[in-house]
Amino acid sequence: MNGQPISGASVGATGRRGRRGGVRLQALAAGALLLVLTACGGGETANGGAGGQGPAAQGGGKQDNAASQAVVTILPKDGADAVATSGVLKVSAAQGKLTTVTVADSKGTAVEGRIAADGSSWTPTAHLAAATQYKVHAIAKDADGRESAKDTTFTTLVPKNTFIGQYTPEDGSTVGVGMPVSINFTRGITDPEAVEEAIKVTAVPSVPIEGHWFGNDRLDFRPENYWAAGTKVTVHLNLDGVEGRPGVYGKQKKTISFTIGRRQVSTVDASAKTMKVERDGKIIKTIPITAGAPSTTTYNGQMVISEKYKVTRMNGATVGFGGEYDIKDVPHAMRLSTSGTFVHGNYWAGAGTFGSSNVSHGCVGLQDARGAGDSSMPAAWFYDRSIIGDVVVVKNSKDKEIQPENGLNGWNMDWSEWIK
Question: Are 252 and 183 in contact (CB under 8 A)?
C-alpha cells in the first residue's frame, strides 16, 4: 500500500492468487459454454424439463418411432401346404384396421377379395386354384396411423379326383339366336351353387343371363328370349379348385366366346305340312315337308339345331324303333333333339309326299336327292342356309311338347321356372 501501485501488487502476486483467478475465469467460461449448449440442445433441467422442451411437453411422453399397435393375422399360416381351396384363407387385424390386402399366385394373377367395412377382416370373393402357391401381403394401421405389415406364402392341395365341363358352342363360332351355353360335367355335381358361381356368362349388348340345372351333371345358360342378332357372348369357366362334390375338384380355367349371327327361325306346321323359313323378320321361303306319321308323331315346341351332317346313318334301333329302318346315307341331316328328332333330306319318298302326307318316324323330312349332291333340292337349300343354334318351331302336331332337356331346347321352359 503506502503509495505502491495496485498493478504492481498484482504483478508481484506470482503465487496462489494469480492461479485462483485463472481457475475462476475458466470455470465461468465453461459454465457459460455449458449453458449455451444446454439451451441449444434442449437438455433437461433438474426437474426433467428444459424450457418446456422435454418429452413431457412433446406429446405426453409418446415417441414418433414407436411400433404400431396393429396386429395382422393371416390364415393359413406361412408355409402351409395342402390348403383347401375355399373356406380357409382369411386375413384379420386387431388394434387397427386393414388398409391393403393382396393375394396372388406365382404368375401374378390376383385373387379378388373384400375388406370389411370396419377394416377388421378381408375375405376372398372367389375360390382358389388347386395345386397353386399363393403369396399374401397385408397392411394395417393403428389409431395413430402407424403401419404394421405381414407377408405369408402357402400352397393349395393337389386333388386326387377331378372333373371338367364339356361345353357347347365352340370357341370362336358363329351360331343362331337359339343357341344356349350348355355345359355337361364329367362327374355328378352335389354342390351346384359352388360350380355355378365359378361360371360367368356375359353378353354385348348386355342382357340378363341365367343358368338352369338339368339333373346334377348339366348346366345351361340363356337369356329370357332369343339372343339378338350380332350379340357377342363370353363364357368364363373358373372351375379350377371348385369342389363340385366331396373330394372331387374342377381342373378347368378357360374363357370362350362366340357370336350370334343373323336371326333365322323356321316354323313347321305339321297339319299344313309346310315349313316357313323366316330370316331377320321376313319369310324367305316356304318349303313342303312331311312330318311324323299318326303313330310316330313329331314333338311340338321350340327346337335348336345342335348338329349338322351332310350325310349320316339313321338306324331305328338306336331310338327305340327296332329294325323298322336303317338308312345308311340320309342327306342334309340336322339334329333337333337328343332322342333322335332331325330335320333332314328324304330321297326315298315320292315327290308328291311332301306337302301332302306325314309319313316319317317323328322327323321333319324335306325332298332331297341321294348323295346330297343336288343343290337345287329343298333339303340342300335349307341345309346350306342353316347354322348350329338356329331355331325350328314345330306346331299343330298331335304330340306333346318336347322336354326342355331333350336337346338344347330350354326355350320350352317358362322364364319364371328357368330362374328358380
Answer: no
Whole-angstrom Cα Rg for the chain:
43
Strand 181-185: give its sheet, edge to edge.
165-168, 181-185, 218-222, 210-213
3-state secondary structure 49-116: CCCCCCHHHHCCCCCCCCCCCCEEEEECCCCCCCECCCCCCEEEEECCEEEEEEEEECCCCECCEEEC
With CA atoms as reference, report the closest residue to 227 among 256, 205, 201: 205
Cell numbers representing residue 322 in the block: 327296332
Cell of 104: 396372388
Asked whether residue 13 carries a pLDDT value surpassing 80, the answer given is: no
Q: Which amino acid is at 123?
A: T
Q: How many angstroms separate the CA atoms of 271 and 291, rounded?
A: 9
How deeply is 28 buried, as exposed, middle or buried, from its count of CB atoms within 10 A (0-12, 13-18, 19+)? exposed
- Burial of residue 397 (number of CB atoms within 10 Å: 0-12, 13-18, 19+): buried
Place of cell 323359313: 277
Angle at 265 between CA 261 and CA 266, to 5 degrees: 135
Residue with cell 395345386: 131
Say whether 244 sits in a helix, a strand or coil: strand
pLDDT of residue 39: 37
Please report, as a single letter, which amino acid is at residue 242.
V
Please state the φ and ψ torsions of residue 337, each to the nearest 5 degrees. Answer: -150, 160
| Matching residue, cell 397392411 | 139
Cα 132 to Cα 113, 155, 273, 406, distances in angstroms: 17, 5, 60, 39
| Closest CA relative to residue 202, chosen from 240, 166, 237 | 237
Q: What's phi and psi for 149, nearest 5 deg?
A: -120, 155
- pLDDT at residue 88 tops 60: yes
pLDDT tens profile 370-409: 999 999 999 999 999 999 999 999 999 999 999 999 999 9
Which residues, 6 or more positions from 22, have their beta carbon under 8 angstroms from its beta carbon? none
With cell 396393429, the residue in question is 70
